[in-house]
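Aim 2 progress update. The chain analyzed this quarter is reproduced below.
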Amino acid sequence: MTEITTEQISLRLTPHPLQRVGAFALAAFAGARHPDLVVGPLFEAATEKVTAAAVRTALVRDTKAEAGFLLKCSYSLWPNSKMNHPRNKKLSDTEVTEAVRAWRTIPAPQTWPPTGCVLCGAAAVGFYGKSDVVLAESVAYRNSTPRGHAGLALCWPCVCSFHAVPFGSQLSGGPSTVVHTWDERFAAHTVGRQVQRNGLLITLGAKPASPPADVAVLAALRGYEHRVTAGVELLVFTNNNQDQVLTSHAVDQPLAEWLRTTTRLPDRRTGFACLLRSLRTDKNSGAQNLAWRVFHRPESIPGVLASYLTARTEACGRPAPESPAVAELAGSYLHEVMHMEEKDLAEIRATAQRVAALFKPDDTGGKLTGFHALFRTGRGADLRSWLQRHSVEWVLTRPEDGAPLITERGFELLFSPSQDGNAWFFRQYLLTSVLAELHRRGWQPKDAKTIVEDFDPDAIDPADTEALEEGIAP
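Predicted structure tokens:
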């Protein structure tokens, strides 16, 4: 072959997550909606921006310099490359520039191997290893080229995509983090936001102000107007010579879509504000801790809401005013994220309405406190006994209702071990639903004291607002 073909200046997506991030970063540089549109002059202009940044970085030579952040990162991205070669300190600017540009220039067609790109099937332009390609799928891929092996066969657009990965990544100087999703429209949205944040990195080599990557995902979801059609992954990787790492933390599509709608819908604002408030600590904002939970312990969120509402009720001395909003948010999570059937959740809500009717105007706060205690870990048998005991009272005092305090189906949902471990979640939902119903009924213990609220239950803390709307946590 004697000339460069169109396929070598036409960007495309492959199944490799990091290549896809790099392709969307190049699309953002080109101002294109999708990588498939980056062809010919657009492709060359986008890759030139990446190459120019590499040249500027190599000329810094000192990782401790003000503009040396990208150079520092390069040791974890492209070790042993022309960008960070120790010999650069002894070379002139012209020599360093020529070396980096030669590294980032497509090989002459007559040198191309007679094989296809392993990622997309286009003609490969060479074999590439550690100094160009970050980790493949796991730490098991050491990304070193063994003796007798030429490397990974890649076409030029795929090589350029790997070169662009840092500009769509959250860089720390050590491990880097990228957000990957198979939802291409959302991928363009998230990578485009990160490219904007990395503006200083591209032009000056300086470290950009950027939120933790998981918080950035929440911010991206909040600002996204379309339905999320795939899950979201956080890929944390380093490609340096000392310790190669690749870890993945995923949010499934139902949770990603729930987060998007919950952070945007006005009728969920109060419940969402309570969720953020319940997770706030002295060290981190609620948004930071929520982001960590959705990637590491998403199953804990219903319990967090129940615990918050219990604590608020005890602090207020009566069902908290935000109880209905919190119960509605908990129900939406169980249905939309955990796929619990609406008819089962309706059964729990109906049970909660009847349980709430057991609380009389002359009851003291001690009755409500005792009811809260029944939902602590390990007290399922006590709650069952309480319901059975009060079922007799229900029949004797409310015969006109016609329904039992709790139906056979209700008992099965709350206590049967055959419910795939969901009994605990149904019990937590029962608690939040009872508190919500008590608030709707206007019930309060006869010994309740007047409590002056020190915050608006509907208000989101400014730190959380900044994290979610601007994408930069304090």
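The chain is about 50% helix and 5% strand. Residues 136-144, 470-474 have pLDDT under 50 and may be disordered. These observations will guide the mutagenesis experiments scheduled for the next reporting period.
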